[in-house]
Amino acid sequence: MTKKIAVLAGDGIGTEIVAEAIKVLEFLNADMALGFEFENGLIGGAAYDVHGTPFPQQTIDLVTPADAILLGAVGGYKWESLDISMRPEKGLLGLRSTLNLFSNLRPAILYPQLAAASTLKPEIVSGLDLMIVRELTGGIYFGQPRGVRVLENGERQGFNTATYTESEIRRIAHSAFKIAQKRNKKLCSVDKANVLECTEFWREIVTEVGKEYPDVALSHMYVDNAAMQLVRAPKQFDVILTSNLFGDVLSDCASMLTGSIGMLPSASLNETGKGMYEPIHGSAPDIAGKNIANPLATILSAAMMLRYTFNNEAAAARIEQAVNDALDANVRTVDIYSEGMTKVSCSEMGDAVVTALKNRS
Ligand code: NAD
């Protein structure tokens, strides 16, 4: 049966890194008869330039029936002065909410070959393998009312609203517990229940849901402590479950434990397992067009697509093994380069992964 993958390269390095992930997927598509069909669409600044909006109807029509979406990144200097409603990032938020992609999975894995690239001591990070499950379609990023208003005394005030409904918390909690069941069965829910009522409620509901997963050890942690623990002793975590805002910050923090933002994939899933897969980094306008970006986060996002949407563990594991083999072959893009390694371009890194796949087929 044909499986449709919508490909949204986006802006900046998006086109360069997505091309490499497609190279890898096309190889596996032929090698394992996966039945994938790829169709390209526009999002972000690239969509604004053509259609006058970062999330045009043409893209909605493409992603709605697709089984999965592979996305590069959005944003860039060119669009920074646009009204906030037309900025490239709005395209991404639109995509997440249109497809109800509420469950954001962000693994942080340290490849042993890159242990020296982490700013933390090797003994703190070596063997690191944690998963952050971030709620993606609720919380303060979407809560109403929001804006800037003028108070009675004439002073202006900026405001946002943090909200979570019980059903929003339940579904992300179930998602995280199920993932923990497939890993080391430890789930740490991160909140600020001592100060924010919304997250006190979060803790109450997560605790209730936890009773349905007696095989998973549930703990709770305040976000300030979690930030500290992530850099102090990150290997204590298996799965971290948290809200949209806290997850945004903690996952970027976790990414740095692994050395480079260019190594980390992500998945955003809805209730049926349909997903959008993208690297956690942005469009890196400072290096766009130079063919030097690291495509591995995007290639590893394609592996997550095979695992979480297409339930093809074998194909996912082949990509992850090939990335490992490419690193073993000592090829490095500039962001993960260290002395004695062979510096390669974005496209050469993609080629190295395909070569590694061929070598084991
Ligand atoms: P960024 O992630 O684009 O870049 C941060 C730094 O990391 C830069 O120095 C960049 O060169 C480097 N970097 C990022 N990805 C890399 C890769 N694959 N290989 C090598 N180096 C890499 O973050 P930023 O600079 O804060 O944002 C740039 C633009 O991206 C902004 O418009 C921002 O809004 C947007 N953005 C988009 C997303 C997304 O599409 N999901 C996420 C974050 C930021």
Describe this structure in words.
The protein is of the alpha/beta class. It has two domains: 1-110 and 264-361, 3-Layer(aba) Sandwich (Isopropylmalate Dehydrogenase); 119-258, Isopropylmalate Dehydrogenase (3-Layer(aba) Sandwich). 40% of the residues lie in helices and 20% in strands. The chain contains twelve helices and 14 strands. The protein has helices at 14-31, 45-51, 57-63, 88-98, 122-125, 166-182, 197-210, 223-232, 244-257, 296-308, 313-328, 346-359, and strands at 3-10, 36-41, 68-73, 103-109, 129-135, 147-150, 156-159, 186-191, 217-222, 239-242, 265-269, 275-279, 331-332, 342-343. A ten-stranded mixed β-sheet has the order 2-1-3-12-11-4-5-10-8-9, sandwiched between helices. A two-stranded antiparallel ribbon has the order 6-7. Strands 13-14 form a two-stranded parallel ribbon. α1 (14-31) crosses α10 and α1 packs parallel to α12. The two termini are 23 Å apart. The mean pLDDT is 95. The structure holds nicotinamide-adenine-dinucleotide (NAD). Nicotinamide-adenine-dinucleotide binds next to α4.
What's the helix and strand layout?
Elements: E1 3-10, H1 14-31, E2 36-41, H2 45-51, H3 57-63, E3 68-73, H4 88-98, E4 103-109, H5 122-125, E5 129-135, E6 147-150, E7 156-159, H6 166-182, E8 186-191, H7 197-210, E9 217-222, H8 223-232, E10 239-242, H9 244-257, E11 265-269, E12 275-279, H10 296-308, H11 313-328, E13 331-332, E14 342-343, H12 346-359
Parallel strand pairs: 1-2, 1-3, 3-12, 5-10, 8-9, 8-10, 13-14
Antiparallel strand pairs: 4-5, 4-11, 6-7, 11-12
Characteristic terms for this protein:
361 residues, alpha/beta, Isopropylmalate Dehydrogenase, 2 domains, ten-stranded mixed sheet, two-stranded antiparallel sheet, 12 helices, 14 strands, globular, binds nicotinamide-adenine-dinucleotide
